[in-house]
Amino acid sequence: MKRDRGLTLIELVVAMAIFALIAVMGLQALTGAMRSRDRMVEIDTNTAELGLAVSLLRADLGALVPMLFHPPGETPRSALHLDAPGRVLSLSLAGQPALPPEPGPGLRRVEWRFDPGAGTLSRAAWPALYPVPSATTAPAMPVLTDITSWAIRSHWPDLGWLPGTTGGPPREAPDPTGSDTDGGRSAIPESYSSTLPEAVELTLESRRFGQIVLVESLK
């Protein structure tokens, strides 16, 4: 009768080496899968931030109305206004949900602010166009980060694309008369302005996404 022979030392070492090689390969595959998952989560987060910023910009430009803004203690500003340094873009909006505690038709003023030091694009809103108590301004909320620069152009009839948001001197429509029965518009002085471009182009330079160009028609 033949007796079974056990493993030799060499066979045991070879088996252990093969097992170690398979374990290392499995660990590398698991590590790669985890890194890929983390990268996908990071991309998804970054894309969600960019998508939110673009959606908000499009929604604000789509809700733009030709109504002047009356900031506290200052002269009225046009419906679409870019400050002299080119860092604050202001828009008069209507049709969006009203912000508490001010009920109403959703008339508000939105400011998009670019901070070159922090590299952020933030958004703030006033709950009214007139009158506007200084205490009602909302704090600016960061919307997009890692922005290195932005540029704004507007398209005007017979002029084409021009830097900024103005294409000539402001033109204000006559004030509403007392015969207006809606009870709200007639109480707002100098509230209408016909100075609006046909389209607006915003170009953002981002460290993560490169150049982002947003063109929105206002007609």
What would your notes on this structure say?
This protein is an alpha+beta fold and 219 residues long. The protein has one domain. Helix content is 25%, strand content 26%. The protein is built from one helix and nine strands, in the order αβββββββββ. A five-stranded antiparallel sheet has the order 1-2-3-4-5, with helices on one face. The protein has a four-stranded antiparallel sheet with strand order 7-6-8-9, with helices on one face. Strand 8 and strand 9 form a beta hairpin. About 10% of the residues have low confidence.
Radius of gyration: 30 Å
What general form does the structure show?
elongated
Major sheet: order of its strands? 1-2-3-4-5
List the domain count as a whole number: 1
- Portion in beta strands: 25-35%
Helix content: 10-25%
Biggest beta-sheet profile: 5 strands, antiparallel
| Helix/strand class | alpha+beta
Helical stretch tally:
1
Concise summary:
Helix content is 25%, strand content 26%. The protein is α+β, with helices and mostly antiparallel strands.
Question: How are the SSEs placed, and which strands pair?
Answer:
Blueprint: H1 9-62, E1 80-82, E2 88-93, E3 108-115, E4 120-126, E5 141-144, E6 147-156, E7 160-163, E8 199-206, E9 210-217
Antiparallel strand pairs: 1-2, 2-3, 3-4, 4-5, 6-7, 6-8, 8-9
Which key terms come to mind for this protein?
25% helix; five-stranded antiparallel β-sheet; four-stranded antiparallel β-sheet; alpha+beta; 219 residues
